[in-house]
Amino acid sequence: MMVSIELSRTLEAATALRLAGRWDVAAALLGSAEPDTAQERLALAVAVADVEVDASLWLTSTDAEAALERAETALADVRSPAPEVAWDLDLLRMRCDYHAALRADPRDASQGTRLAAWADRLRTTAPDPGRSGWAAFFGGVIADNLLTEPDAAGELYRRAQESAETAGDQLLESYTLRRLGDHSHTAGDLAATRRAWIRSTSLRDQLGFVPGAMAQRLALAELLLAEGDPAGAAALAADAGRTIDALGITGWLPRNAADLLERAKAGGAKPSRTAQPVGPLQRARRPRPAARTAHRHGLRPTPVTRCAATGRVILTRRQPSGPTHQIRPPSRLSAGVDPVPEHAGQDRSQVGQEGCSMRRVVTVRRPIAAAATSAAALLGCLPLAGCVEPRDGSYLQVEVAAAVCERPPIGAMDTRCSHVLPKDAVVRVYDGTQVVDTGNPEEGQYRVRLRPGTYRVVASAYLFGIARHTAVVATGHTTTVLLHLSPVPVATRARPVLSS
Question: I need a surface site. Which of 44, 183, 325, 397 has the fewest CB within 10 A?
Fold first, then answer.
């Protein structure tokens, strides 16, 4: 028996099945469709290739070469194909080669160089910001996993994050947050890691991206281990492992789940480096001594002064002249109200031990653009807005609302609209390309203390568009920004074919 159904609905269903980890069902659905035109045949062939390439990341037994060849043949049969279709196929081919390079043992560095150039070409020739973001993301994982260039990878992830926000692509955002959180984890910034990984997990849950959500649960279990909760890590890893087994996923993900569960049961002890599996979305981490980390961020313990009360090493960066700024780890006595100490302008090495356990102030001289964030991370002082305290009391207040309208009854002339706040709304504040604060607006309002300057404010929520505004924070004033989120039309909510 034959059933007629719109091609767009078939592609949407296949995308949902692919996200759910049902690659076999998605391929069977697409294979059962009978296209009437060469254009429809091409769309189906590209969708099948997308499913097979995505499956090759999660399943060791999948080979996407045949599907890619069929798609390229279908592209040649179309007289005037859309330019983005050829770009999409080129990206799929690069991803297929990247997955093969990950499985190679040993890995070939020349393949990493070739793929990095390929990804860069795709990024510069992308027909829209969303596709440019995907090319930047894959350029980042190539730099991370094949070239061992974390700095270059981080820059590409940040570009991909900006593209994801511009295009409203929450799946891409989940990938970039996963990788940026991984970099924060390597740097020892567990608070930033938690924010990024929880947001990534939430996005994947909302999208029905089951394999990706399980990978994120393993990442959160790794975070629990780092935070000293092996029992919680074991429970989370075991739960994710059961779902991974039920999906029939093979290769790096179940290996990582088993390794993590074993380490959690052992109380967090890590196996030897040679025995530790590294998946395609996980970089091998090298321990970084505190002194080396301080030197990398321009913070030198010169001289090293240790607080007698707390034992904490006080790090300073010397500069001949310039104003000073205080970086305060949060405590009961430093909630933004205790006074600036009289010795705030002095070099910390010249300050006596009295009171160091009470205020725990570190003095850092200008320029502080990079040093302030690094010092705050070294001292466990997060979030940044609560640590780098401006003396002038300058605030940015963001108010977020979303209008949801109901269809009027037949014969009615007006449309009923109500204002709601999406429960998963997120506000990000940028200083240039650097995220300086992230939060969830409770009861529609979000307030952060910032230094005077110009900031870019971005609000987003699932099934709503992106709202942006440029705000100027003046000295001693509160700047209020109103952001309105508009629902994404139902017809445009389907994920793009190449959104994995």
Answer: 397
For 55-88, how does the pLDDT look when each residue is reduced to its tens digit (9 = 90+)?
999 998 778 999 999 999 999 999 888 889 999 9
- The CATH fold of domain 395-492: Immunoglobulin-like (2.60.40)
DSSP H helices, 227-355, are 230-247, 252-265, 290-296
Task: Assess whether the previous peptide bond of 367 is cis (omega < 30° from 0).
Answer: yes
pLDDT digits (tens, 9 = 90+) for 253-283: 999 999 999 999 888 655 443 333 344 444 4
Placement of tokens 């767009």 in the chain:
8
Segment (H or E) for 77 = helix 65-77
Q: What is the pLDDT of residue 416?
A: 54
Per-residue DSSP letters for 176-208? Answer: HHHHHHHHHHHTT-HHHHHHHHHHHHHHHHHHT
Tell me: domain 7-265, CATH 1.25.40.10, correct?
yes
Nearest to 193 by CA among 177, 171, 176: 177
The HSE-up count of residue 84 (CA atoms within 13 Å, CB side) is 11
Give the span between the Cα atoms of 330 and 381, in whole angstroms.
6
Positive or negative torsion for Cα 99, 102, 105, 110: positive
Low-confidence ranges of the chain (pLDDT < 50): 271-392, 412-413, 415, 490-500
Using CA atoms, how far apart are residues 82 and 88, in angstroms rounded to an integer?
Answer: 10
